[in-house]
Each structure stands twice: as C-alpha cells, then as structure tokens.
Amino acid sequence: MSFASLHRTELKLGLKLAGILALRMLGLFLVLPVFMVLAAEVPGYTPALAGLAIGIYGLTQAVLQQPVGWLSDHWGRRRVMLLGLGVFAAGGVVAAMAPSMLWLIIGRGLQGCGAIAGVALAFAADHTRPEKRSLIMAMIGMGIGASFLLSIILSVPLASLLGLQGLFWFTAALGLLGMVLLAGAPPDGHDREDSPHEEGEGGYIWPLAVSVFLLHTLMTLFFVVLPGTLIRSYEMPLSSHWMVYAPTMLLSAILVFPLLRALAERQREQVALRWAFVGLGVAMAVFALSLPVWALFAGATLFFLAFNVLEAAMPSLVSRLSAASGRGRKMGVYTTFQFLGAFAGGALGGWLLEHTSSTTTLWAAAAISLLWGVFPRPSRQASA
User: Is residue 151 part of a domain?
Assistant: First the structure.
C-alpha cells in the first residue's frame, strides 16, 4: 500500500475528501463516549430515547444515501456535498439549542440528512485511475478511522470544557470547515474509464453491505453501554474515561497501518475482515465479563484495532465493484447499510439497556459479531 504511486492530483483529492469526511464523522462520533451520561440532564431523558438520539443520524443518512447519490449523478458531486455539509452544520445548531430530548433527536436526525458519504466515494472514483482507486478508498477509510480515534481522545476533555451544548456547537463549526475544504476540490467530471475487471452489477457488494451494517451496529451499541460499564464496574468517573480510550486507540492506530499494508500486498483482505469480526466479539466478551483492568485495556485495544481494519479496508473493496455509470447510486448502497447500522446500534442498545442490563447487551453484541465472523460467504476476491 504505497501512496507514492498516486498522481499529485489524485493524492490531493484523496486528502481533501478524507479530510472532509473525517471532519464530518468527527462531529458525529464526538458525542458517542459521553452522550449517555451527559444527556441524563436533558428534560425528557430515558435510556431508550438517548439511544435513539445517538443513532437517529444513521436512519436519516440511510434513507437519503440513494436519492442523494442519484442527485449527485445528475446535479454534480460538489454541489450536493456543499449542500449536505450545510445541512449537517444546521443540525448541529439545532441540537446545541435543544430544550428537550425531542429537539435533540431532531437535531441529530438533521445532521444525518447531510448524507454525502456515498457521494464523496463516487467523487473520488470519478477522478482516480481504476488501478489506484483502492488506495484512495483506503485513504478515505483511514481518515474516517482517524476521526474515530480523535473523537475518542478528545470527547471527554471537550465535554468537560464545553458541555453537551458546546459539543454540538463545535460539530456545527466542523461542518462549515468541511465546506471550506471542498472549495479547493476539482470540478465534477467522470473522466476516468472503468477497469475491465470492475463489476457493474454489484452482486458481491451485499456481503460487504451486511458487514458494514453489523460493524456500525456493534460500534454504536458498544458506546451506548461502555460509559456506564466503566462507571459501574470499574468505578471510573467520566472525566477519567480518556485514560482507557487514548492509549488503546493510539496503540491500535500504530498497529493498523503495517497490518493494512501487509494485507494489501498479500491480497488477504477477505480473511482479515472475518477475523476482525471475531476480534470485535472477543473484545466485547471481555467487557461483559468485567475482567481486571489489564484485560480491560487489552480488550479495548483489540476492539479499536478490529474496527480500524474494517473501516479502512471495506471501502477499498467496495470500490472494485462500482463501475462509472451511476456510481453515486451504487456507492450509496454500501453507505446506506453503514448508517442503518449506526441507527440500529443506538436504538437497539438503548432498548436493551433499559429493559435488560449492560452485561446482557454486551453478550448479545459479542455473539452477533462472532457468528458473522465465522459465517460462510461466497468466495470472491472482492467480497468480505
């Protein structure tokens, strides 16, 4: 995996799009580690409604990925992305000014209406040589993984400084910054020919679509349950949670880059993705068992490493299955399932937490992840 082989224009576009999506996803991820604790002070709070507020952005994104992708095919990628970033910023303002859980849910839902993830992937593919698209998609995936890393590290300190309201004002500013970055992107144009090896139908996209659905279901559910687990099982106040998140995320980030490079060189991505789901399941079982602190750190490192591998590698694989004609719509299939997973994880996690326990919720998530890791799938080079 060498970015040196990219043309300067390809590298510049990849960095810009990675930065734009990273800023946007940072705004969405930033509240995850603290929301279930801070939202308890919002009028109308219940665990189920708080879980819905966490995940509702995924539902609105999922509903709009396909129509927004279609619109970008006809109206232009840049225009649609600018509109989406503006809507995202407006959602942050609504959430920051929310007087109740209902308005907080509305604000988070509006943030999700800026559904530009699939459009950004299509924009990247439009301007990249077919044989180099996997590098650009991996770059974008790494940017999203980096935003997740930053959100985990910065969430608690920023929440302590700004509060929940200030966090949402901060996310609105991130949306505006993304619009500034987009101003320097190249004009629209499907100026790259397809590789003869690329598929137009996307039948083998479905295992990847299910995989990304489960990944974001598990990730969102994990952060619905984790803050309370750290407080109750480990007597760790919210202000100290960064001591778990920061070192484990940094270690996972150090490990993920050589791992991704080795997987790309050996073309072993499919096998690695399956083992990554097994790793997620094992990590959540560690938290369910409330093992000693050293095991807590090992489990968190494993969870974040597996998540970063999946988040970086899967967009690269999807890019091999998307031909130029109607690419915005086709890439939207993948991102639709991604954000449906975020909604499902928030809603399901909140419901399980309210009606069962954090331990039961973690065991259920661990079982789902392990089963998907060993579930047989069609054998194909670009499938997961």
Answer: yes
Of the candidates 327, 268, 278, 297, the residue with the CA atom closest to the CA atom of residue 125: 327
Tokens encoding 262: 């080795």
CB 66 within 8 A of CB 328: no
- Please check whether residue 197 lies inside any domain of the structure: no
> Would residue 200 count as lying in a domain?
no
**Cα gap 279→277, rounded to integer Å:** 5
> Range of 261's domain?
3-189+205-374
174-222: pLDDT as tens digits: 999 999 988 877 666 554 444 444 444 445 677 888 999 999 999 889 8
- Using a 10 angstrom Cβ sphere, with 0-12 exposed, 13-18 middle and 19 or more buried, the burial of residue 265 is exposed
Is residue 109 within 8 A of residue 91, CB to CB? The reply is: yes
- Taking the C-alpha atoms of residue 246 and residue 7, their distance in angstroms, rounded to an integer, is 34
Alpha-carbon distance of 40 to 250, in angstroms, equals 29
SS3 assignment, position 204: coil
What is the token pair recorded at 249? Answer: 């995320």
CATH number for the domain that contains residue 341: 1.20.1250.20
Residue 381 covered by a domain: no
Mean pLDDT of the chain: 82
Determine the pLDDT at residue 384. 46
Q: What is the CA radius of gyration of the chain?
A: 19
| DSSP-assigned letters across all residues of 268-335 | -HHHHHHHHHHHHHHHHHHHHTT--HHHHHHHHHHHHHHHHHHHHHHHHHHHTT--STTHHHHHHHHH
Count: domains in the chain: 1
- For residues 178 and 20, the answer to whether their CB atoms sit within 8 Å is yes
DSSP labels, 134-161: HHHHHHHHHHHHHHHHHHHHHHHHHHHH
CA distance 147 to 153: 10
Per-residue pLDDT of 84-99, as tens digits, reads 999 999 999 999 999 9
Q: How far apart are CA 35 and CA 168, in angstroms?
A: 11
Q: Is the full-model pTM beyond 0.85? A: no
At residue 119, the pLDDT reads 85
What region, left, alpha or beta, does residue 267 occupy, with left being phi > 0 and alpha being psi -120 to 50 degrees?
left
